[in-house]
Specification:
The chain is an alpha+beta fold. It is built from 7 helices and 8 strands. The protein has a domain of 158 residues: 3-Layer(aba) Sandwich (Glutaredoxin).
């Protein structure tokens, strides 16, 4: 058995809407080799992590930033910045294994959320470029291309990336130059801030059905931790998760995946 996480972060909503956190050490975990912080997020209330949630049972409009099966038992949300070196590390080293073992097998659906670390500059421009590609149904090809640059992005390169992945150049240029989606991009970051997070990358794992509650809390995983840390938390939660029903969506890269009203936040 591997050692349990070194700390738990018990989070509760205050009447003001702010969050209170208390760190509790675990006495049984006395031989941790590396500093791992996996937080347990408690709270019956869930933020509106998806932009459009319909009133009838939690069906939402897909915005193209989801990979995985519509009814996967677990959902993993990432808050990230395309210029973040550790985010790129996660993309290179951990994400391919998570994709193969959990996302493509229908166990986990993955949701990407923007967290530009600055209010302007290349990080914001990269997020806009990805959103503009998404407007043409190509969010994930642009997402992957941006992260393949390992955080070394240049403002003049985005239109070239759009050409490489086959986007309509005129439509992309209009979207990108007009800085479309800026409001939505910073709303993503505000979501994370309201949960008390101020860095990238960050992840939360939770049940797709029902969202986080005190009885079944979400698990926050801050940082580009190794695959084994993610797998430990996913396997633990899957052990008691109800079996999903329904048909699988298109494989990796699909923008046709529907969403529910419960997601993960960092």
């Amino acid at each position: 058995m591997r050692c349990s996480p070194v700390a738990l972060w018990w989070v509760s909503f205050l009447s003001s809407g702010r969050i209170a956190g208390v760190y509790e050490s675990q006495a049984r975990c006395t031989h941790m080799i590396r500093a791992r912080w996996v937080h347990t997020v408690v709270g019956a209330l869930l933020l509106a992590l998806v932009q459009l949630v319909e009133a009838d049972g939690g069906a939402v409009t897909d915005d193209g930033r989801i990979r995985g099966r519509i009814d996967a038992p677990l959902t993993l949300l990432e808050y990230s910045d395309f210029t973040c070196g550790y985010c790129a590390k996660f993309f290179r080293e951990t994400w391919p294994r998570l994709l193969a073992k959990y996302v493509e097998t229908g166990k986990v659906r993955f949701v990407y959320r923007d967290y530009p670390r600055s209010d302007q500059g290349v990080g914001v421009e990269a997020a806009v470029a990805a959103r503009c590609a998404g407007a043409q149904g190509q969010y994930w090809p642009m997402h992957d291309r941006l992260f393949s640059e390992r955080g070394r992005l240049d403002s003049g390169a985005f239109k070239g990336y759009a050409k490489v992945i086959g986007l309509d150049q005129t439509a992309f240029a209009k979207c990108f130059d007009g800085r479309a989606y800026l409001e939505s991009i910073f709303q993503d970051r505000q979501e994370a801030n309201r949960w008390g997070f101020h860095g990238t990358p960050g992840f939360i794992l939770m049940r797709t059905a029902g969202g986080p509650t005190e009885k079944e809390p979400a698990v926050a995983i801050p940082g580009a931790l190794p695959f084994e840390d993610f797998a430990e938390e996913i396997d633990r939660m899957l052990a008691t998760a109800p079996r999903s029903q329904g048909e699988p969506t298109e494989p990796h890269g699909s923008t046709a995946v529907a969403q529910n009203s419960q997601f993960i936040i960092y």
